[in-house]
Amino acid sequence: MPQKVIGVLVSGTGSNLQAIIDAIESGTIDARIALVIADRPGVFALERAEKHGIKALCIDRKGKDAAALNAAILEALDEAGVDLVVLAGFLSILDARVVARYKNAIMNIHPALIPSFCGEGYYGMRVHEAAVRYGVKVSGATVHFVDEGMDTGPIILQECVNVYHTDDAHTLAERVLEAEHKLLPEAVRLFVNGCIRVEGRRVIICEEGNGR
Q1: Which residues are 8's β-sheet partners?
Q2: What is the pLDDT at residue 206?
Q3: What structural domains does the chain harbor?
């Protein structure tokens, strides 16, 4: 089976990108990252990519409308021959063209247990602020496929993280990020090994490699 090719989209420091790179370099994930795209210049994720010999590209969202940004991203992904797109802290919205081109092949990591604290306005520290404010006892991380909605695609994996009465958004964010660093590489590993099947909204995790 040909090795799967991954494209990673980022907007910040890229710690989840690093988790995937580490899993590939350790042999846990049998795939290669062909391209890392940032929608902002100067983010540390681009430096991470270059350090590991991965092509790093900035497609700056500033000064571009959504259509132009998405067209440039789609062109770069297609040129790289990408099989799986991973959104690792990517804050721009992918439009219907990109989603259709990579149907059930775009993964996103969200720092809460979807469908809680997700959708429009819920990103970054805002998610954890909302969880602490609401008084939930557990939060966590979710990896899901991207559809045309916002955080509405089929859920691949989730992991719970306890929320303590002493938590603020920052302490909760630290523990959720640890869960993200485990969950996202595992979802990528399952995908490249052919262990994921989508039935409507349900994601079925199959036996290794048999697709059933």
Answers
A1: 36, 86
A2: 87
A3: 1-102 (3.40.50.170), 108-212 (3.40.50.170)
In the chain, the amino acid numbered 100 is A
Span 129-170, pLDDT tens digits: 999 999 999 999 999 999 999 999 999 999 999 999 999 999
pLDDT at 209 over 90: no
Contact 57, 33 (CB under 8 A): no
Largest CA distance in the chain: 49
The mean pLDDT value of the chain amounts to: 95
Q: Give Cα 81 to chain centroid, integer Å.
A: 19
Burial group, residue 25, by CB count within 10 angstroms (0-12, 13-18, 19+)? exposed
What pTM value is reported for the model?
Answer: 0.94
Measure the CA–CA gap between 187 and 39, rounded to whole angstroms: 23
DSSP-assigned letter for residue 12: S
DSSP 50-93: HHTT-EEEE---TT--HHHHHHHHHHHHHHTT-SEEEESS--SP
Whether 110 sits among the annotated catalytic residues: the reply is: yes
Which of 52, 110, 165, 181 is an active site residue?
110
Q: Is the peptide bond before 2 cis (omega within 30 degrees of 0)?
A: no
Q: Distance (Å, rounded) from C-alpha 138 to C-alpha 30?
A: 33
End-to-end CA distance of the chain: 17
